[in-house]
Structure formats: C-alpha cells, structure tokens
From TrEMBL:
Pfam families: Bgal_small_N, Glyco_hydro_2, Glyco_hydro_2_C, Glyco_hydro_2_N, LacZ_4. It comes from the Bacteria. Its EC number is 3.2.1.23. It comes from Streptomyces qaidamensis. Coiled coil: none annotated. It is an enzyme of class 3 (hydrolase). This is Beta-galactosidase. Belongs to the glycosyl hydrolase 2 family. The lineage of its organism: Bacteria, Bacillati, Actinomycetota, Actinomycetes, Kitasatosporales. GO terms for cellular component: beta-galactosidase complex. Gene3D superfamilies: 2.70.98.10, Galactose-binding domain-like, Glycosidases, Immunoglobulins. GO terms for molecular function: beta-galactosidase activity; carbohydrate binding. It catalyses: Hydrolysis of terminal non-reducing beta-D-galactose residues in beta-D-galactosides. Keywords: Glycosidase, Hydrolase. GO terms for biological process: lactose catabolic process.
Length: 977
C-alpha cells in the first residue's frame, strides 16, 4: 500500500471538496445486480484512524460489514444531534479530528469471470468512500444512502485473489448536507458485493406502465469494449406476453443525424388488455424480463423487473392515483435498528411494512434519504405510496448551502441518482428533493433534472413554499408543509387560492405520549376537498440498546435482549446524551409510533381506527349504515362479527354479513340483536378481520373495530342517605383497609415530552402544581358522612377542594369539587389520586380500551368490558412520563387473584389510570430502567385531564381539550369486593 500522502485519493482531500461528488464511479442504474453476485458481507479487517490522512498501522481489528463502527466496539460512539452540526466548521470544512475507518479483505475473483466485466458494488458508506484494489486507486463516492459501483475489470484478474480496501471518512463536506435528525454514525451500512456481466450489457432499463395497460420499456445498452457491436437487440416478455420492438424509434434514430451510432438505446412496447392496475390496496405486479441479445441471438444480459401499471397525476389541487383522489395515510420512516443503527435486514424491513399495513398506513416518506433498496421492492409488493426523498438536509447551514454553486453538483447528483435507482417502482409516486435545506438555485437545478428524466411523477420539497403554499415554484408540485396547524390547512383549502394538493410531509409528532388530535385532523381531512393527508413524524423511536454497566452499545450481540418495547435488565434504550456526548438533543430522537424494537405504541391503534376501510356511518332504528371508505377495493376481503356490550356487564356476539359495497358506497344492515329493554348503556362494535390471508396479515387479523352507541346511559339521580361509618384521620383523610394513601386532589401529571417542550411543564413547575400544600379548612363529621374542605396552596394560586365521603350501600360515595382560580388555567388534570395495598394486580373496567387512551387520542379505543394485569397497563415511553391512562372509564375493579379487592364506579365516563408509579416518581428519572415499580397501585380518577397534543414539535392540543379554570365536580363510589 502506498504512503497515505502519496495516494492520489487522499492527496485530493475529497472530504473537503463539495465539487467532487465521485470519481471513477459508474452511473446509477435501475438494473438490479443483487442476484448472482458474490456477496462480500462479513468480517473485514478494520482499523479506525484519527484522520483520513493518517497512515494505517500494522494492527488490525475486525468489523462486520454491513454495519457501523460506532456500534461495534470502537471508541467513536454514536452522537445524536438534530439541527446542530456536531462540529463548528463551516461548510465545506470539517474538523481535523475525523474518524476514518479502513476496511480490507481479500476477494477471490471467480476464474469463470474471464472475459467479463467485473463490478464492485458498495451498498452505502458514510460519508466518503475511497476504493483501492491491491493498492491502486479505483474510485471515490459520496452520498451515505446510495450504492456506489466501480468497474474493477482493469485492476483484477479472474482466478486471482485481490485485496479490496474501502476507506470510509466520517466527516466531509457532504456531512453538511446530511445533517438529518438522527444519530451520527460511521461505516459501511449496506451490503458489499461483486458481480460480473458480459462486456455487452444492459446499462439501464426504464419501465413506464400506465393504468390503461400501455407498457414502454427503454433500454440503455453499453459495451465495455467501447463501440457497440453491430446487430445487438433487446427483447422483452411480460408474464409470457412478448413485447414488440419500437421500430419507429429505431428508424427515427437512424435517420437523425444528431444521434450517433453509440446511442445504444432501444424501446420495447406492449399493450396489456384488461390490465390489473397497481394501487396501495391491490398492489398487482407483473413480471418483466428484458434480454439483451448479440447479433446471433444469444443472450448477453438479462434484467428482471416487477411492473405495476398505474398513473400518478395532479389534476387541479388533487393528487390522483389511477384517477382517484387517494388519502395519504403516511409515516416518515428511517432505516433504523436498535442494534445495528442504519443497517436493516430484508426481514426487518418486511416486518416494518407489515406492521404499518396492519395499522392502516398506506404511505411512506423515506425520511430523509433513499432507503435500503429492498424497502421499495416491499412497498411495491405490499402496497404503499412512497415519497422517495433525496439525501439532502443542510439544516444547520441551510441558507448558506442552498445557493452555493460548490454544492450544485451534489444536489443534482443526489436527486438524479435516486431517480435513476428507483424510477421503476410503482410504489414511488413522488420525488422529494430532501428536507430542511432552505430553498435555492441548487434545488431548482435538481428539480429540473428530475422532471426531465422522469416526467411521470410530481416533485415535492417542503422548503420551496417561501411565498406560501400556492407559490408556483419549480421545486414543489405539492404543498407539503410540516407541523402546520389544522386551522391553517383548512383556511388554505377554503381560501379559493389553493393550487396544489396539500399533504403534510410531517405532522403529528409522535414523541413520547403524543399524537393528540389525530382523529380531529382526519375528520377535517376527509371532509375538506383540497386536504389529502400527511406523514406522521415518525415510525421509529431511535433508542439504541445500551449496556447500563459500561455505557456501551449492545451491538449485534444484543439480539433478544428486549421484549414488548422494554430493554432487558441491565440494558436500556439510549437516546441523546447517553453515550457521554455533551452536545446532544436528548430524547427528541425517541419520537416514533413504535418502540425501538417495533412494539407498537398505543397511537397505532388510534391510527388503525382512523384509517378503517369499513365504518359505521350511523345507527337508525332499523339498523346500522355501513360505508366502504377504501378507494379501490370492495369489502369481500373482510369478515365481521358484531359485539354488543351492555352496561350490565354482558357482551353478546353474532356473525356479521358484510354487504357487497364498492368504494364510497353505503348500505343499511339490520341490527343483529334485539336490544334488551334493561341494561342501560349499550354499544355495538363491528369487529372487522381479514377474511383470508393477505400478504401482510394472516386470516383473522383485526383490521378495525368501528363502534356505535345504541343507547345512552340513564342519568342516575342519587340521594345520599348514609348507612354506615366513614373513618377519617385528623386531617380529614379517609382511612380505608385497602388504601395506603387516602384520596387527595391531584392537579399534575408527570410531564409528557409535549408538556416539556411545549412549555406547559415549566409553567406547572412555576405554579408548584406538583406538590401544593394541603391545608384543611374544615372537617365536618355527621353520622355516616364526613365533609372535608381543604385548600391546596401553591405559587400559582389556591385551589379550594371539597370532598364529601358518605357511607352507602356497603361502600362509600365520594363527592368532590375543586375550584381553580383564573390564574390556574390549563393545568394537567383535576382529579383524585389514591394508592392501594399490594396484591391488587388485575384491572377490569367498563370503558374505552383496552389500550391506553387520552381525551384527544381516544377515537381508536372502543367502549367495552376490558381486563388487563396492572403491570400491562403502563406504556414504557423511553423517557418516563404520564402514561397508562384509559379514557371514558365508567367503572372498574381492582382485584387480587382470590377476587378480593375494590370496585369503583364513576358518575360519568372519566379518565382513569392505574399504574405502579407516582407522577413524581415518573418525572424524577430519565430512563425507564431507573423506575422502581411500587407493590401497590397508584390510582388516578380525573374529572378532567389535559389532552396530549403534539407540542414537542408542532401544534398543541385544541382549546376544547384543555383543563380550564373554574369549578370541577366529580363523584365516585368505592366498595370492597
Ligand atoms: C423536522 C425534521 O424534518 C425532522 O427530521 C425532525 O427533526 C422533526 O422535525 C422533529 O422530530 S424539523 C423541525 C425543526 C421542525
């Protein structure tokens, strides 16, 4: 190996040269060479240098490829920063201390590749890749999320062994445009492979398949020897149907003097009668084989594609797929894994997409870079609309870079190579120019390239809307704001000035216990022409599995050390700051709808219901009206079961016959039950499951649980006639054999991430809401009844609390009121908290459930009779916070295995939580593993509970979900079982 300083790839210092996007790299192509290739994944010799121009030493360790060295035992650990760059240098400069991984291994070049063209493919490396073979410089590549290919034919000999060295420089000019909100890593994150082709080969294939059945295949042919040989031709076959040569194209080229013989282009066409079109609901795919022939007819090269016939267009302000204004129920997805960082396996990606399908998502934005190639194959196959995003985010230096001509090539290169790679995927419906990079000439240049190369898809870029969402800029065909308040979206749609589809590229920030008002958003979207959906931020909580004892990432050895969203003892989900970084953005990296192990958070159930393909439109005496809310599919793939839940504790079921409804149609179906005259409140649920196996769900998988109330509860007028004894202490606090802490007023919750970042928690802290001083004003003892008036005094004001305890019906009735002064507008909750003796481990309730729900996130939790162990009620958000609540609870029992315990009835549906944690205990720790569960239960019964909103990044909850000042009243009863 040459001296590092003499090596031209090092001497060039490409890590500080934005003009250098590559050298010696082959053009990107949509021809997939993965099958038949020699995989080079596995352990490579490895050393981590302090800088790219440091001389590699004699001592090697090893590193697994694909993988990041930041999770493989080096001292260069992951660092999480959102907007800020991890170093101070301005673009295109980087610090002198610049971790550089040198990977090396021997490769046996198959002898049978003699005479063939031999290509090395590096799936992805961040952020600069330098390639040497046997010490000879071969190439350079940038873009941490796209493959780089190099022609090794001149530097290797079939039958011989070659030493391949891949040098990966962590910080570069490119880091400034890869400033995405995620962990910083370094390494080779996707597979490395070697393949061979005939010198005469298919350099690229472009497939255009329209919904009418027209197929056009454009082929680019090259010969490694230079000029193309006479007489070559291509043929194509689509599921047995032969494609025809576009002779007109050939003739026109031959006659056109501007077209040289070197063009190497051919076109094939087909018309497919009665074509089955592709859409996210029925993702029909056809198999296409393209063959390149030599003049004698022998096959020189073959390329296989899966083709989906579909159209994407914008008509007026609607985005249409096959002529339909589809709703975009999207999520932003990163390539993420808690053990391997950015390296994701096919099985993991499939599991991601299967889960999303099961929870009603139909769209993915590949935030914020082209995802692993297999993701798109899976999206084609399982049915997702994909916004494919280029690897451009210059967040910290957005303004400087957007118009910097030194970065022009990088912008165009990144968009162009993404388009070239992914253009044949029917799932890709929109190109995105990147994220959070201001808006400048570099964007327009990249948009121009994309539009010319692929006129079949819209282009979007959030940053383009500098003069408003209707601005006719070059960079965005979609108005795709992030975190826009719903009222602004509505106002735009109703303004008469809307020119583009409004699909939020990010909304409903899923950090911690969040996604309040999601159902309100969707009610508005579905009811308002011009609004078409959006992409929730985001899919993953990017917690990295970390050993607690030495603070090291568990890495690949951590397989199986987590379950149900929780890390095994001795481990935790690390977020920003946990690897000793001083500069970091904390738990802002934990903002997904799934935990780091893909366990769904409660919001997923909310989403599933909001996206329900079949719904109960209304209830009339003769029956219920069902509606098909899909765009393309009937109801035949679903089966149903009716469930009637009565307040008396009974549930009845009956098979449901789903009517044959086309999309958009409704039909009345008769009520399956005689509603009993007695029984109070009554709820009818349609349990909808898959009728057969779907590619993403076995038969019987729950799809949605639409529900309608058949009868309201009768208001119960209680006259309080005492019939027993109430025992209180000198403070007027209830003394009860099953309670270890008496019921007192609670105004606070362990702040959620939204409460913290939205500023509410700070206000509550200033007010002293967490622990106001309770001062007893009066305790009035009457036979069978004690009335206690107290004041809860805190810096923010004084809350007068009245609690009347009446012995009745073998139990106790508690009537409470709290008067919040005007100054205490918008508190976390107003309600009662008490604690129980240990052993009451099972909660049964009539109310919404079974999963966690809150006032502004309760559309997906049907009313019914639910039952869960107390330990399973709590949701282990990475940074402990208010969690485990259940909305609309009418009554509950908390019992021991011998059925002893207590029963509580509420005057009306209330927010209740039963957990092992006091609010103060949750708020005191930073990680879930630091929580010490109590043996007994902490029970909250809330007269009012603040909505969750999404204020950690975006709008807070609506005013109607706030806990206002004034008088709150609530009553409940407590009985020993
Ligand atoms: C926006 C980013 O696009 C996304 O990457 C993520 O950071 C998200 O917010 C918040 O988690 S940018 C934000 C400053 C609005």
């Amino acid at each position: 190996m040459t001296d590092a300083h003499l090596d031209p790839l090092i001497a060039l210092r490409p890590w500080q040269a934005p003009e250098v996007t590559s050298w010696g790299r082959l053009p990107m192509s949509a021809v997939d060479r993965r099958s038949g290739a020699v995989p080079l994944d596995g352990d490579w010799r490895f050393q981590l240098l302090p800088a790219p121009d440091a001389q590699p030493g004699e001592v090697w360790s090893s590193s697994y490829v694909p993988g990041v060295w930041t999770l493989q035992g080096t001292d260069d650990l992951p660092q999480y920063l959102n907007v800020r760059m991890p170093f101070a240098e301005f673009p295109p400069h980087v610090p002198a201390a610049n971790p550089t991984g040198v990977y090396e291994r021997e490769v046996d070049v198959p002898a049978e590749w003699a005479g063939r063209r031999i290509v090395l493919q590096v799936g992805a490396a961040e952020s600069v890749l330098l390639v040497h073979v046997d010490g000879r410089p071969v190439g350079i590549s940038k873009d941490s999320h796209l493959a780089a290919e190099f022609d090794l034919t001149p530097v290797v000999r079939p039958g011989d062994r070659a030493t391949v060295r891949l040098t990966v420089v962590k910080w570069s000019d490119a880091s400034h445009i890869e400033d995405q909100d995620q962990w910083w890593h370094g390494g080779i994150t996707r597979s490395v492979l070697l393949y061979a082709t005939d010198p005469l080969h298919l350099a690229d294939v472009t497939v255009r398949a329209r919904r009418g059945g027209d197929l056009l295949v454009e082929c680019r042919v090259r010969d490694a020897g230079g000029a193309l040989p006479e007489g070559w031709y291509v043929s194509g076959e689509l599921d047995g149907q032969l494609l025809t040569q576009d002779a007109e194209f050939d003739r026109a080229n031959a006659e056109d003097e501007r077209v040289s013989g070197f063009l190497g282009e051919a076109r094939l066409r087909a018309a497919v009668p009665g074509v089955r079109t592709w859409n996210a609901e029925t993702p029909e795919l056809y198999g296409l084989t393209v063959r390149l022939h030599r003049a004698d007819g022998t096959v020189a090269d073959t390329s296989r594609h899966r083709v989906g016939f579909r159209d994407v267009e914008i008509v007026g302000r609607d985005l249409l797929v096959n002529g339909e204004r589809v709703f975009i129920r999207g999520v932003n997805r990163h390539d993420f894994h808690p053990l391997t960082g950015r390296t994701v396996s096919y099985d993991d990606m499939r599991a991601d997409l299967v889960l999303l399908k099961r929870f009603g998502f139909n769209a993915i934005r590949t935030a914020h870079y082209p995802n692993d190639p297999a993701l798109y194959d899976l999206a084609d196959e399982l049915g997702f609309y994909v916004v494919d995003e280029a690897d451009i985010e210059s967040h910290d230096h957005a303004h400087e870079i957007a118009d910097d001509p030194r970065y022009l090539g990088a912008f165009v290169d990144r968009v162009a190579r993404m388009v070239l790679r992914d253009k044949n995927h029917p799932s890709v419906v929109i190109w995105s120019l990147g994220n959070e990079s201001d808006y400048g000439a570099n964007h327009d240049a990249a948009a121009g390239w994309g539009r010319r190369h692929d006129p079949t898809r819209p282009v979007q870029y959030e940053g383009a809307a500098k003069r408003g969402w209707a601005d006719p800029d070059l960079a965005s065909d979609i108005a795709c704001p992030m975190y826009a308040p719903l009222e602004e979206c509505l106002a735009h749609a109703l303004s008469g000035t809307q020119t583009k589809p409004l699909i939020q590229c990010e909304y409903s920030h899923a950090m911690g216990n969040s996604n309040g008002t999601l159902a309100d958003h969707w009610a508005a979207i579905e009811a308002t022409p011009g609004l078409q959906g959006g992409f929730i931020w985001e899919f993953w909580d990017h917690g990295i599995l970390q050993r607690v004892n030495d603070g090291r990432p568990a890495g690949r050895g951590g397989a199986g050390l987590y379950d149900n969203g929780v890390a095994a003892p001795g481990h935790r989900w690390a977020y920003g700051g946990d690897f000793g970084e001083t500069d970091h953005d904390g738990a802002f990296i934990a903002d997904g709808v799934v935990f780091p192990d893909r366990t769904p958070k409660p919001v997923m159930f909310e989403h599933r219901e909001i996206a329900a393909p079949v719904r109960i439109a209304c209830f009339r005496h003769e029956g219920v009206v069902l509606a098909n809310h899909q765009h393309f599919r009937g109801l035949d793939w679903l089966s149903g079961e009716w469930e009637l839940s009565l307040a008396d504790g009974t549930t009845r079921t009956a098979p449901a016959e789903l009517p044959g409804l086309r999309p958009g149609e409704t039909a009345a179906v008769p009520l399956p039950f005689e509603l009993p005259a007695e029984g109070g409140e009554a709820w009818l649920t349609l349990r909808v499951t898959t009728a057969g196996d779907e590619p993403w769900a076995p038969r019987g998988t729950v799809v949605c649980l639409p529900q309608v109330r058949l009868r309201a509860a009768l208001p119960s007028a209680h006259t309080r006639v005492p019939d027993g004894v109430v025992e209180v202490d000198e403070e007027g606090l209830l003394v009860h054999p099953l309670l270890t802490a008496a019921p007192v007023l609670s105004l606070w919750r362990a702040p959620t991430d939204n409460d913290e970042l939205g500023g509410m928690a700070a206000r509550w802290r200033d007010w002293g809401l967490e622990a106001p001083a309770r001062k007893v004003v009066s305790v009035r003892r009457d036979p069978g009844r004690v009335a206690v008036v107290s004041e809860y005094v805190c810096a923010g004001g004084t809350v007068r609390h009245e609690q009347a305890l009446t012995a009745m019906d073998g139990g106790l009735i508690v009537d409470e009121s709290a008067e919040l002064p005007e100054a205490l507008h918008d508190v976390a909750r107003v309600g009662t908290v008490f604690e129980t003796v240990p052993g009451l481990n099972l909660l049964e309730w009539f109310g919404q459930g079974p999963w966690e729900s809150y006032p502004d996130r309760a559309a997906g939790a049907p009313v019914g009779h639910h039952c869960l162990p107390v330990d399973e009620l709590f949701t282990p958000y990475l940074r402990p916070q208010e969690s485990g609540g259940r909305h609309g609870v009418r009554r509950f029992t908390l019992s021991a295995p011998d059925a002893t315990g207590l029963a509580v009835r509420l005057d009306r549906p209330r927010q209740v939580s039963v957990t092992r944690h006091r609010a103060a205990g949750l708020a005191a720790v930073a990680h879930h593993d630091e929580l010490v569960p109590r043996a007994g239960c902490v029970v909250h019964i809330d007269a009012a509970h603040r909505g969750l909103g999404t204020a950690s990044c975006g709008p807070d909850t609506f005013a109607s979900y706030l806990v206002a000042a004034g008088v709150h009243r609530w009553s409940w009863s407590l009985r020993v079982l």
